[in-house]
Amino acid sequence: MPETRELLIVGSGPAGLTAAIYAARANLNPLVVEGLGAGGQLMLTTDVENFPGFPDGILGPELMAKFREQAERFGAEFVTADVDRVDLVRPPFRAWVGEREIIAESVVISTGATARLLGLASERRLLGHGVSTCATCDGFFFREMPIAVIGGGDSALEEALFLTKFAASVTVVHRREELRASKIMQERAFANPKISFRWNSAVEEMLGDTKVEALRLRDTVTDDLFDLTVSGIFVAIGHTPNTSLFMNQLDLDENGYIRTGPSSTSTSVQGVFAAGDVQDHVFRQAITAAGTGCMAAIEAERWLEDQRHAAFPA
Ligand code: NAP
Question: How far is the CA of 237 from the centre of ligand 1 (A)?
Fold first, then answer.
């Protein structure tokens, strides 16, 4: 038998869990399908130093555990699985999780985004054998070894700085000669004696049979090839929104992010709201994700209220 909910939340990063806290406190009895990657990208981070309220910083997984605990305290329920399929054409909405069918009067989508890869065959082959997208998860395996980080944004420098705790050396490989990362991260990276930079360098190939042995780079100015000896390669070149479930059901932008707003988390389908990185390619911060999660829960509550008034006018 399908179960019916006033609010279904899909995804459990800062956006989904904040929506769960607000919705649970509004007595909407939310069900959170938290996904197999529960907690989202902060589960793959180390120190979070910019989340207000934690002057000494907090570990990403610890912060997410606190969010979840707070949502549970007010009665949010959790399913630790991925949603397989949804029907969001019109309310009531439907979602399938394995054998379980959920009928929901409103939905908050907070499925986040996933780390991008370069798309090389050698990268795919060596993923998990020296190639990684998560320094927190895999940095430990590269004690006293030379490592490369690909990318020039905050993620790349954050990974590089974290990896200096383990690695013998960290080379940041960037395709331009100017970083995209914030000034404070640049200053920290430039000041770290274990970090060096290879500018104007595109990755041609990742070398090694069963494990990473080197990175073949092409100088984008001279076209020269150069092999950099490394044991680990961390790819940190941005993210792709997790929206494949919603294709042809919701309006997405040219990069696949859910279109929302203006000044709202409403999507192209009334009663369906989107919060966090799945709809935000600009800020992508835990605090902004939490903010839009709060907005989504309040907007869902108001929308449900309006439906009740429409069905039973005073
Ligand atoms: P990003 O800012 O989009 O940076 C991606 C980097 O990867 C860019 O330098 C880009 O090069 C490079 N890149 C993209 N595709 C590439 C390819 N195919 N080959 C080689 N290089 C490629 O992504 P991000 O670093 O993940 O950061 C995303 C957002 O999260 C940002 O707003 C950032 O501020 C935020 N963030 C903040 C923190 C923090 O405050 N501690 C930590 C992590 C992330 P180009 O520069 O040439 O485009």
Answer: 5
> Of 235, 254, 276, which residue sits at a domain end?
235
Closest CA to 129 of 37, 207, 204: 207
Q: Domain tally for the chain?
A: 2
CATH number, domain containing residue 188: 3.50.50.60
Mean pLDDT of 83-93: 96
310 burial (CB, 10 Å; 0-12 / 13-18 / 19+) is: exposed
Are 158 and 110 within one domain? no
**Within this chain, do residues 222 and 270 fall inside the same structural domain, yes or no?**
no
For the Cβ of 237 lying below 6 angstroms from any atom of ligand 1, the answer is yes
295 contact partners, CB below 8 Å, separation of at least 6? 264, 265, 273, 275
Same domain for 248 and 221: no
User: Has 137 been annotated as catalytic?
Assistant: yes
CB of 153 sitting under 6 A from ligand 1: yes
Q: Which structural domain, as residue segments, surrounds residue 219?
A: 117-235
Of 191, 220, 235, which one is at a domain's C-terminal end?
235
Mean pLDDT of 19-48: 90
Task: Answer whether residue 314 shows pLDDT above 70.
Answer: no
Active-site residue, 294 included: no
